[in-house]
Each structure stands twice: as C-alpha cells, then as structure tokens.
Amino acid sequence: MAKTRLKWTDPPTRRTLWSQLGEDIGCVKARDPAARHTYEIVLTYPGVHAVIAHRLANRLWTKGLRFPARFLSWFGRVLTNVDIHPGATIGRRFFIDHGACVVIGETAEVGDDVTLYHGVTLGGTSWSAGKRHPTLEDGVLVGAGAKILGPIRVGAGCRIGANSVVVEDVPPGMTVVGIPGKVVRDRREHRRQDGRIDLDHHLIPDPVGDVLTVLIDRVEFLETRVNHLQSRLRARAVSPSPEEGETEN
Fold first, then answer.
1. Using H for helix, E for strand and C for coil, what is the string for the chain?
2. What is the reported pTM?
3. What is the pLDDT of residues 127-161, one digit of tens each?
4. 162-205 pLDDT, tens per residue?
C-alpha cells in the first residue's frame, strides 16, 4: 500500500490518477449520509470537483508546468469556491463536505482519510519560502470554520472543533476546541466501531464551560457562607450575650 508523503521535503508518492479519483469519489458514501449514488456524487458535489481539479493541477505542478497548474487551480476555485494551491500535498480518500470557502496553502500536507467541512483554512504564518502551512496526519476531521495556521502538525485521528483556531502542534487522537485552540483528551466512547467516520464532531468537550461551571459553583458556595455569617452577626447584635447582661446589672 502506498504511503502518503508527510514530510514537505520528501518527494511525493506517485499513484495513478484514476485510482486516486476513484477513492476520492468512493469515500463520500462512507462520510456523507446524504450521498445516494455515484452519479449524484460526481455531478453535484463541489468538494469532489475541487479535489479532482487539484489532482490534475498537482500533476502539472510536479512536472514543472507551474502556470497551467495555477490556471487550473484558479478555474477550480471559480467553479467550486474552494482554493487549493496546486503545490499542496493531498493524501488518499480526501473529502471536503459542503465544499465552500476552503483554503489550503502551498506547503500544506494532508494525510489519508481526512475530512474537512466548509470554511476551513490551512493557512501560513510566514513570508519565508519554506514550509509554512500545517500538516494533517491520517484520519483528521476538521469542523466547519476552523483555522489551522502555521507549520504545525495535527496528529492522526484528531478532531478540530468548529470555528477553532489551532496554532500549536496537536498530539494524535486529541480534540481541539476554542480560540486559541485548547487540547483536550478525546472521549473514546464516541468512536465508531464499524469503520465509518465519526460524524459526532459536535460531541466535544468544553474546557472553558467546565471552568466557568466550577467557578459558578464556588461563588454560590461562598455567597451561602457569607449570608450565614451575616445572619449570625445580626442575631448576636440583637440579643446581647449573658456576660453583657450581668455587667449592666
């Protein structure tokens, strides 16, 4: 089995174009419950069209035909509203669900079985000509609107929550949520065991919400103690102690 290149300086792994496209189209049924048959996928899925355009543009790019590659990439963007640089390395069975407003930079590397939702950006953070875009390892799922920026690595099997902004490396099998993204351990009970993609990407931890809940509970406890102490002080002020009564007599 061919292995996806996951190091920017390595030469790309060569596979036949038809085998790549066949896997890209075939994986849609396993990841989109709305997909009914192959003709519908080929004709009506802009995410698939974007991947097909990139496969062709990338072939031209690696052969040194840079302007034709860029022109084909531009045409694919006009057609699908998905902007994938022809120099980006895309692995097998890549799927962009609801393909729109996705941006993938030149030195980005995407492993096998990766799924992106609409609005995802794999962007750069440097003017240098070297590696400046992220690497997504196998099986990563990126929620709608998420931004992954810089030459960072997102480990295999990670899930990136919708609208998260990731700027640091993520260990394998983790979930990232928030702005900036915070890493939390994935809930293993949400993994599917039938080999299909885990679409329960909305069932993600909320570390900020958990902290706020703890703080609210603590504030309520402290308020209760303060109220209790105030009640005792008021009661003591109203009824003098026995020692005070004897002094007055």
1. CCCCCCCCCCCCCCCCHHHHHHHHHHCHHHHCCCCCCHHHHHHHCHHHHHHHHHHHHHHHHHCCCHHHHHHHHHHHHHHHCEEECCCCEECCCCEECCCCCEEECCCCEECCCCEECCCCEEECCCCCCCCCCCEECCCCEECCCCEEECCCEECCCCEECCCCEECCCECCCEEEECCCCEEEECCHHHCCCCCCCCCCCCCCCCHHHHHHHHHHHHHHHHHHHHHHHHHHHHHHHHCCCHHHHHHHC
2. 0.70
3. 777 889 999 999 899 988 899 999 999 999 888 98
4. 888 999 999 998 888 888 888 776 555 445 545 455 555 555 66
